[in-house]
């Protein structure tokens, strides 16, 4: 980390400290007759506050496990709740609880809520893999979005209905070999209902990443990312960290060139995944900062030649590398967090 980089962070530390002071007022514990009540109290009293580190599926968790960067607590190394294992320890000296949520939005949302309800968590770091819908992103690159939309919420409209106010996907435009009418008509993309502490319900399409955390993450652009899968196969270019693109989430694995292009052209969306928006929404609901790191593992249906090759493992390792440096940095800029 460059010296002037750290200086830039210091000026932001005050803002972050204010955010943290507000957050630490939340009460954290399991109900008093829960069998793990005492264990959870010990985790919160002895080690926290923690960064919550969240990933969705085994390849992403394996990236962390094989890195040996996570050092489990010798007191309580893990707590099992609701079928998930909450792992307690440190990464580069920063107190972390990591958990694999399971795939798609409901799993991700449930687990972030449990993490925030039960443990003393001051922010959520989320990493994983994604498909690219932007031709300028390459396999292995890590996207740090500043906005993520949930694109799986639609109003499915009547055949030959009027144009709505929100963006629409008209199926007839994709008839093959030539466009025309289609009885499936069209879908209109609808925003999500965001409930959060002390605020009326808001309808939001673009969920924002916490700006202070995003600024801290911007300091990590010259991080070394992995380029080779093995001794014989390397990507044509060294992967890079890319900031401020728009991400998207749906309970859909996207492997279709036409819809990929629609998302990019209609919304300027650069990545597709199945959890990020849920992790951000759960964080926003609880007033806790959140940041997302997604490594490009596939092209979401584009590019016939590379299509067959998924680089999930390399993409997960690269996303983790950025997430780990972020955790280390956020631990340094905020001295009152980790005493
Ligand atoms: C290296 O990875 C490539 C791409 O997945 C694969 O085709 C090749 O067999 C691998 N080589 C070795 C030595 O494992
Ligand atoms: C997409 O990006 C282009 C160029 O940055 C901009 O002109 C356009 O308004 C954006 N479209 C949407 C839907 O955000
Ligand atoms: C696509 O990715 C490139 C490279 O990161 C970026 O410069 C460009 O703004 C992105 N396009 C859109 C519409 O976001």
UniProtKB/TrEMBL annotation:
Domain named Nucleoside phosphorylase: residues: 51-308
Keywords of this entry: Signal
Signal sequence annotation: 1-29
Disulfide bond recorded as keyword: no
Keyword Lipid metabolism belongs to the record: no
InterPro entries: Nucleoside_phosphorylase_d (IPR000845), Nucleoside_phosphorylase_sf (IPR035994)
Protein name: Nucleoside phosphorylase domain-containing protein
Lineage, broadest ranks: Eukaryota, Viridiplantae, Streptophyta, Embryophyta, Tracheophyta
């Amino acid at each position: 980390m460059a010296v002037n980089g750290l200086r830039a962070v210091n000026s932001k530390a005050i803002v972050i400290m204010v955010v943290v002071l507000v957050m630490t007022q939340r009460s954290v514990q399991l109900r008093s007759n829960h069998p793990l009540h005492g264990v959870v109290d010990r985790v919160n009293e002895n080690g926290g506050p923690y960064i919550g580190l969240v990933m969705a599926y085994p390849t992403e968790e394996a990236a962390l496990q094989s890195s040996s960067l996570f050092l489990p607590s010798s007191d309580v190394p893990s707590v099992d709740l609701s079928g998930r294992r909450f792992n307690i320890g440190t990464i580069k000296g920063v107190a972390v609880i990591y958990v694999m949520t399971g795939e798609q939005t409901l799993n991700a949302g449930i687990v972030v809520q449990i993490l925030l309800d039960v443990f003393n968590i001051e922010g959520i770091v989320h990493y994983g893999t994604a498909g690219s819908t932007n031709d300028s992103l390459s396999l292995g690159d890590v996207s740090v979005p500043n906005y993520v939309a949930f694109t799986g919420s639609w109003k499915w409209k009547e055949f030959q209905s009027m144009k709505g106010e929100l963006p629409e996907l008209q199926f007839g435009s994709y008839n093959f070999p030539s466009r025309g009418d289609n009885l499936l008509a069209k879908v209109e993309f609808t925003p999500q209902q965001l409930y959060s502490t002390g605020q009326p319900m808001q309808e939001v399409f673009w969920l924002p990443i916490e700006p202070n955390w995003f600024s801290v993450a911007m300091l990590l652009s010259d991080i070394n990312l992995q380029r080779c899968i093995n001794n014989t196969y390397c990507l044509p270019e060294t992967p890079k960290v890319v900031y401020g693109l728009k991400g998207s989430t749906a309970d859909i694995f996207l492997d279709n060139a036409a819809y990929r292009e629609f998302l990019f052209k209609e919304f300027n969306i650069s990545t597709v995944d199945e959890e990020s928006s849920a992790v951000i929404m759960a964080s926003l609901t609880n007033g806790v900062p959140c940041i997302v790191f997604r490594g490009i593992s596939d092209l979401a249906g584009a590019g016939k030649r590379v299509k067959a090759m998924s680089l999930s493992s390399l993409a997960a390792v690269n996303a983790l590398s950025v997430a780990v440096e972020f955790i280390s940095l956020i631990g340094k800029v905020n001295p009152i967090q980790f005493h």
